[in-house]
Amino acid sequence: MESRSASRPRADRHAPVTLRDVATAAGVSPSTVSRILDDRVPPSRTATAERVRAVAASLGYRRNTFASNLRRGRTATIGVLVPRLSDTVMALMFEAIERAANRIGYFTVVATTGDDPADTQEAAQTLLGRNVDGLIIASSQRKDDLPRQLREEGVPHALVLRTDGISPSSLGDDEAGGYLATRHLIDLGHTDIAVLSGPLFTSTAAGRLTGSMRALNEAGIDIDPSWVIESGFGIESGAEAGRRLFGSSTRPTAIFAANDNLALGVMAAAHQRSLSVGDDFALVGYNDIPLAHLLSVPLTSVRTPFDQIAATALDLMLAPAPVSDPIRHTLPTLIPRRSSGMPVNRAGGT
């Protein structure tokens, strides 16, 4: 077969290259070009497909996904709501959603909402006004009206890292994670354990506290109620709780902090008291943020599988019909490091 030139068969070289231009230059039909260049399906490796892609690249063809999606009644854009991107966990979650969306040909737009349900509502309406195909919601309130309203209006959506118990939700198994963290401390010999739960208006904090209490109850350990501290999820909240625990006449030998920021705050409070993490007390965090293993005393943490949670959330949001199991839990993993220290001896020392 005689080879064809990939030069552009149009007089106007300033106009956008069309799918028909590529078809003419490659010697195939426009429908063949459309099928080969459709990035929503696995790429064909036939000689024809390779030639079409080479011709499209040489001509500078760019697929107009916006126009093709409008013809299908969608924009291939997903709105993502997070409380704040200054929170490492929320930033990691959004990046995981973005990666998962890009793999299936979607673009993501993020809006920050704070912790006020009214602000979350406003941000959601703004994104929907931009014709996103659906919403992924990581806002922190367990009880707000937005998921219910989206269900009633038939808006595709999914919750991540949280659930209201009804809407499609993808999250780590927080109860299992809280259990793993506390069981680890118990297995090291600790009985004087404090728990920093985070804000209990979030399903994450409630689940992790429930799991922690289950581990303590199974081991027959009754802890001082003042050692179960509800707070925010920030570093300063952890530091404040740490100062309170370390400033009491009796202090715990181990602390489970329901996220890594809380654990970082506890570390700061310990430094102020000249206490050594991993020696004077054991510490376990949650989420295993990238900083955790780089600290001077690497932090034992429960790893949250963000990429798996993101992919599942997209599957739930894009499902053509309601699924039978809309709430999906992904199991976390405990990552032991130096901060949880050595086993406690029978006398209670380390």
Automatic annotation (TrEMBL):
One of its GO terms (molecular function) is transcription cis-regulatory region binding. Residues 17-72 form the HTH lacI-type domain. It holds the Pfam family LacI. SUPFAM superfamilies: lambda repressor-like DNA-binding domains, Periplasmic binding protein-like I. Keywords: DNA-binding, Repressor, Transcription, Transcription regulation. It comes from the Bacteria. This is LacI family DNA-binding transcriptional regulator. It comes from Rhodococcus xishaensis.
